[in-house]
Amino acid sequence: MSSARESVKEATTLLDKLVAIHPTLERESIYGSTWKRLALIEAAAGRPRDEQRAIEAMKMHYHRAVEIGRQSEVSDVFYPALNYLSAELSLNAGRSGWKGLDSSIIESTRRGLDAKNVADPDFWSVIGQTELQLYIALAAGKLAHARESLGKGYQDVYRRVSAPWMWSSVYDTTQFVLRKYLTRTSNKEHKAAEDILASLLTFAQPK
Questions:
Q1: Which residues, in sequence order, are CB contacts of 143 under 8 Å at separation 6+?
Q2: Please, are residues 200 and 172 in contact by the beta-carbon 8 Å criterion?
Q3: Residue 53 above 70 pLDDT?
């Protein structure tokens, strides 16, 4: 674990310099991804406070990427936006008193995904629509209600693209988002989250 933390530290030192010189959507997104990696390392090490700090940093950098993308009107702002939402949900979904997701980011993410899927769709933009649906349901505490629709969405994409490495990434992201929710919610929501993860795990496994 210490060597993994050291490699993350080296990466953040370099990214600090790059962002200070010229912040871009790509650089802030990479920075966010680096903090996400550290969050996973700290979770595996059983260090919840360090994990939370890493997720908060992840959220901050992806939010910066979203703001840069909005200002420059780039077409792929949905990528950092989905990651920002995943960090926000990991920190707060199911927590009492949480005000919910930023509706402006949800709407801009939806528009970005729709535009990408009309002009030049790929696996990540198509699955992103189902991920956004998942995040909205999760924020509302209505995962069980959306479970069937989400399952159909995942199945539809899987029929077209079944590469395990792609689905492994989807599974890892969904697990990152749902892991904390499982500890904060009702039995009904807990069961829906477990069902979704179980389905995605089967897609991620080599046949």
A1: 134, 137, 181, 185, 189, 192, 193, 196
A2: no
A3: yes
8: nearest Cα among 77, 57, 48, 49: 57
| Residue with more model confidence, 180 or 85 | 85
* Percent of the chain surpassing pLDDT 70: 92
Residue 94, by phi and psi: left (phi above 0), alpha (psi -120 to 50) or beta?
left
Tokens of 55: 């997720």
Indicate if the pLDDT at residue 2 is higher than 70.
Answer: no
Q: From 114, 106, 28, select the one nearest 75 (Cα to Cα).
A: 114
> Can you read off the two tokens belonging to residue 191?
């069961």
**b/e per residue, 122-138, with b = 16+ CB within 10 A?**
eebbbbbbbbbebbbbb
Task: For the chain, give every domain's residue range.
Answer: 1-74, 93-207
79 Cβ contact partners less than 8 Å away, ≥ 6 residues apart: 29, 124
At 147, which amino acid appears? R
DSSP tag of 45: T
Note the pLDDT tens digit of each residue in 150-192.
999 999 999 999 999 999 999 999 999 999 999 998 899 999 9
- Residue 162 phi, psi (nearest 5): -120, 15
Query: Who's near 41: CB < 8 A, 6+ residues apart?
Result: 1, 4, 5, 8
